[in-house]
Amino acid sequence: MSRCARRGRCRVIAGVLLAGLVALLPFDRCCAASVPDIEQQIGQMLMVGFRGAELEAGHWILDAVKKGKLGGVVLFDRDLACPDRPRNIISSAQLKRLTRQLQQAAAVPLLIAVDQEGGRIVRLKSSAGFPPSPSHTQLGESNNPDVTATEARAVAKTLAAHGINLNLAPVVDLCANPRNPVIVRHQRCFSADPRSVTAHAAAWIGAHHRQHVLTALKHFPGHGSSLSDSHLGFSDISKTWSPDELIPYRELIASGLADTVMTAHVFQRRLDADYPATLSPLILHGLLRQRLGFRGPILSDDLQMGAIRHHYSFAESIRLALAAGVDLLLFGNNLVHDEKIVDRAITVIRDLIVAGKLDPERVYRSYLRMQTLKQRLSSLSGEESQRR
């Protein structure tokens, strides 16, 4: 039996940085051929937005995808940083061309994500020819998870037909605070009752899985009790948050229905007196990983949102998010736009490794979680084939 087999898995990463850095790391040659270099591993930890409904050869996002520097992309219909120009979604035919082009360019299968919650929060809008769908609150008010499953099937079928394999939904925040400006106001929550939220979310996820579309539970540890919008700035839920907001996560994780979990940029001093959830080891590692038992990838909410960008530098937000346990760093590139953001993020993470502030094995674990998630797409296809 080889050293790799005896140890269960290789502890090292082939080609960990530049040639000079390899000497600094434990490295088993028997595993080198099967492990991508560190830059590609880091790339799998990034999900980035971009401008363009049609991409010409040489577009920076295509270049990043071809080089394996991205785990995923996120698509928008509107460009918030430049409202007078289109973004990524104009029509059905155009969207199919775009996602096909991205996936064909991918060195590693690409996650292509949107927020398609229903109601007001959709990127594939009826004004562009896509079918409308009810909001989470409307579905919750039906009090019938079968209705939710039917509506979610239609959503997922539309996404799958257009090459989108990750829906950044369902929202499992509770409708806890009637004055909540970002979740309750926009009908993004199923119910104030955590058991009802769990039932509707399970129906939503199951319908997506049957169409081979992954989902993301959001926004951990709960955004439905907040009094402010973390898109704009700091959101403190210390006085309003309840442990009941964890119930949907606990039950959906235990049921094996949690593909990914998206963090919230909210501050809860009873859980962590120093950091918002996205940057908190106590909340992400201690609560989500250890207490709730989640083993899949943790996805940050957009790190360019005001709650993070106004308080932390680009490099510091990345360092803290990784230290907290985030596996997939989301940069919507929509509130602000930066065509160099992929290379900037990779440089930050690489420099953290060189400085000894980030263990390469930490990167490798996130890489493995991302590959497991992408393999789940294949398993969903297999399950559907068996049902047929």
Describe what this molecule looks like in 3D.
With 388 residues, this protein is an alpha/beta fold. It is built from 14 helices and 10 strands. It has helices at 3-6, 19-22, 38-43, 60-66, 92-105, 136-142, 145-161, 194-210, 247-254, 281-291, 306-309, 314-324, 341-354, 360-387, and strands at residues 46-48, 72-74, 111-114, 166-167, 214-220, 235-236, 260-263, 266-267, 298-299, 329-331. Helix 5 (92-105) links the parallel strand 2 (72-74) and strand 3 (111-114). Helix 8 packs across helix 9 (247-254) and helix 12 (314-324) crosses helix 13 (341-354).
Topology (SSEs and partners):
Layout: H1 3-6, H2 19-22, H3 38-43, E1 46-48, H4 60-66, E2 72-74, H5 92-105, E3 111-114, H6 136-142, H7 145-161, E4 166-167, H8 194-210, E5 214-220, E6 235-236, H9 247-254, E7 260-263, E8 266-267, H10 281-291, E9 298-299, H11 306-309, H12 314-324, E10 329-331, H13 341-354, H14 360-387
Parallel strand pairs: 1-2, 1-10, 2-3, 3-4, 4-5, 5-7, 6-8, 7-9
Helix pairs in contact: 7-8, 8-9, 12-13
Low-confidence stretches: 1-33, 384-388
How many beta strands in the DSSP annotation?
10
> How large is the count of helical segments?
14
Counting helices, strands and paired strands, the structural category is alpha/beta
Q: Shape from CA axes?
A: globular
Residue share in helix = 25-40%
How many angstroms separate the termini? 41 Å
- Beta-strand residue percentage: 5-15%
Q: Nearest-angstrom radius of gyration?
A: 20 Å
State the strand order across the main sheet: 9-7-5-4-3-2-1-10
Report the average pLDDT across residues.
Answer: 89
Largest sheet: 8 strands, parallel
SSE sequence, one letter per element: HHHEHEHEHHEHEEHEEHEHHEHH
